[in-house]
Amino acid sequence: MEPVTTSIECRGLRKRYGRTVAVDGLSFAVEAGRVTGFVGPNGAGKSTTMRMILGLDAPDAGTALVCGRPYRSLRNPLCSVGALLDAGALHPGRRARDHLLWMARSNGISPKRVDEVLETVGLAPVARRRAGGFSLGMKQRLGIAAALLGDAPVLLLDEPVNGLDPEGVHWIRGLLRGLAGQGRAVFVSSHLMSELEDTADHLIVAARGRLVADISVADLLAQASGDRVVVRTARPTEAIAALTGETGATAALTGPGTLAVAGLTGERIIALLTGAGLPFSELTAHRASLEQAYLEITRDATEYTATRSA
């Protein structure tokens, strides 16, 4: 693998389909050495953006570069960027190994590498089986094998955990982290915030075709968590009065005997509760989940929302 100078760079991407603006002035960069998650509500333009990066759709305006060049100008593209957009996009009558073999030959990749990636994704025992008989999870693994085929410095994967069982999800989480640890740029879209929380270093958040956030996962979680402290006490009403009386802090009951306090340090909360003679059994800094943080920053940009039934 050659070192990455620039990985993926999008500048002012725009794409319209009829009256629908799918991508509207989107600009971001995906850096080497980390996993970058690409997230957003349905209709955010994620798939269209990935297709433009790979030269499958032409932008109406702007540019998308891979390793500093348009994808279509890459001489051996599989050796520059490995991609998975649709695991079902394969000939059902072709055997798994043969599916990878013709891709390898088109880019000057040795048959030995085909066997290596089949082993990596766990499909070596079924390499001679026809892909039409594969489960969704097996097709997903075959698509990931195709993305790994060229040992590329840039990986672009659209919803790679689709169809994978818990073991498969655990495996791909480690795979993506390992690839980034080798210095590769890993760009992955997902709707599963819980998986990205354990995998991604950075997030590109889009909504209605526009950039909402370009931020590290750590910074986003810190912003969403704020300065809140969770307090457990057997006398919550009195505790709220003691903590908010003359401090300017806020406290709200979030569950039986559980308060969320904002505006006070843990040390100050302990002093106030102790001074008032009020018992407490737990005092912890509040930590928002990535899903909570994501919903917060996209709540005004979600195009399709369901109503709760009565």
Topology as a string of helices (H) and strands (E) = EEEHEEHHHEHEHEEHEHEEHEH
Q: State the end-to-end CA separation.
A: 56 Å
**CATH class assignment of the largest domain:** Alpha Beta
Widest sheet: strand ordering: 5-6-7-3-8-9
Sheet-strand content, in percent, reads 25-35%
CATH architecture assignment name of the largest domain: 3-Layer(aba) Sandwich
The CATH topology of the largest domain: Rossmann fold
Structural class: alpha/beta
**SS element count, helices:** 10
Backbone shape? elongated
Write up this protein.
The protein has 310 residues and is of the alpha/beta class. The protein folds into two domains: 8-215, 3-Layer(aba) Sandwich (Rossmann fold); 227-285, Alpha-Beta Plaits (2-Layer Sandwich), CATH 3.30.70. 33% of the residues lie in helices and 25% in strands. It is built from ten helices and 13 strands. Strand 6 (154-158), helix 5 (166-181) and strand 7 (185-189) form a beta-alpha-beta unit. The longest helix has 16 residues, at 166-181. The relative contact order is 0.14. The mean pLDDT is 90.
